[in-house]
Amino acid sequence: MEDYDDDEELSDQHRAMLAAPAKKLDELLKDAGIEFGDPTLMEDDQGSEGFRAGFVSIIGSPNVGKSTLMNSLVGERVSIVTSKQQTTRHQIMGVVTGEDFQIVYYDTPGVLRPNYKLQEGMMAFVKESLGDADVVLLMTDVFEDPRDFPDQQIFEHMQQSRRPLLLAVNKIDLLPNATHPQGNLGKDALERVGTLQDVVARWQAALPNASIIPISAREYFNLDELLASLKEELPPSPPLYPNDTLTDKPQRFFASELIREKLFTSYSKEIPYSCEVSVTGFKDQGRLIKINSTIFTTRDSHVPILIGTKGSKLKEVGTQARLDLENFFGKKIYLEMRVKVRKDWRSNLKDLSAFGYMQQGGETENTKI
Ligand SMILES: Nc1nc2c(ncn2[C@@H]2O[C@H](COP(=O)(O)OP(=O)(O)OP(=O)(O)O)[C@@H](O)[C@H]2O)c(=O)[nH]1
Ligand SMILES: [Mg+2]
């Protein structure tokens, strides 16, 4: 993966400006008094005829497989995946450019009722993505009942919205099929879930405006059909980003996410949710990348658990993270990890802002929907 711009000199604001979609150009032209649809400009637009491009926001409850789907569609591991809820905390962009289309996907945190400021920030990412979407890709899995969707306001927004709405019902590999007549759900769950037809009927009744596509994001089942449907809903538009764009975050973001993924897979109970990873140093020295990281946790009592006897646990976690980072960056990695206590980082606006969870101006509210 070499498509990230890791210009450490740039402020986040500058980086956001550089990554701003070409769509914004229309507004700049209008400000400059140049009429939209000016025939001289249209001549320059040759080559984009028949091209479609737009933003597709992947929204849904925690753990339904949003990040797995994003990675499968993009063909790279841009978003971390674990079996635990609330793995994704940010809005993560993944761009796919084809011959006649460009889709800018946004993977988002699972929809939840926020209990603390960090979760408010996560929900602001969801609402921002929803507001920006040309197509909303709502995702559920075979287990979820539409009545249990965690946020009624968002659900009603989807019911009433005139924007194209696709509903992907994920994990259908778990249902009984020709090779696994019993399925993989267990008897009780199977009775509760019913057949795929039952699942689809429940969601179609709750969201009559949605086109429903059953998929398995992990097994790549029906993703061609999903992609075809998404392409049909894209507005005619030239590409929004240069053709070779994959994502918009700097390399150190992916480093911190891969380390955070290991915290989710290596520790239990509240520890993954109490921790944040900050990459304090990222030096690419050609064949080797030196990464310095700090794990912040909310309680003193977590420190010995994170570190383990004589540092054994942290060493094990560090080794797993290093191997993954080497795979991801295609280079040797030197990884340093430290543990610090930052008692209220999940509610402290300054910390949350430093960790990238706040909108400009310190607001977590988003008014777009
Ligand atoms: N059986 C099955 N499991 C899947 C499928 N897609 C994802 N999973 C599993 O579901 C779990 C959650 O996947 P994620 O992609 O992290 O889910 P998410 O919706 O991004 O979760 P949050 O970021 O926490 O909201 C992981 O254990 C995945 O391996 C699928 O198609 N079939
Ligand atoms: Mg996720």
Automatic annotation (TrEMBL):
Region named G2: 86-90
Alphabetical keyword list: GTP-binding, Nucleotide-binding, RNA-binding
Start and end residues of each stretch annotated as G1: 60-67
Protein name as catalogued: Gtp-binding protein era
Organism: Nannochloropsis gaditana
Residues covered by the Era-type G domain: 52-236
Region (G5): 215-217
Biological process per Gene Ontology, one example term: ribosomal small subunit assembly
InterPro entries: G_ERA_dom (IPR030388), GTP-bd (IPR006073), GTPase_Era-like (IPR005662), KH_dom-like_a/b (IPR015946), KH_dom_type_2 (IPR004044), KH_sf_prok-type (IPR009019), P-loop_NTPase (IPR027417), Small_GTP-bd (IPR005225)
Keyword Nucleotide-binding applies: yes
Family, similarity comment: Belongs to the TRAFAC class TrmE-Era-EngA-EngB-Septin-like GTPase superfamily. Era GTPase family.
Gene Ontology CC annotations of this record: cytosol
Coiled-coil boundaries: none
GO MF annotation list: GTP binding; ribosomal small subunit binding; rRNA binding
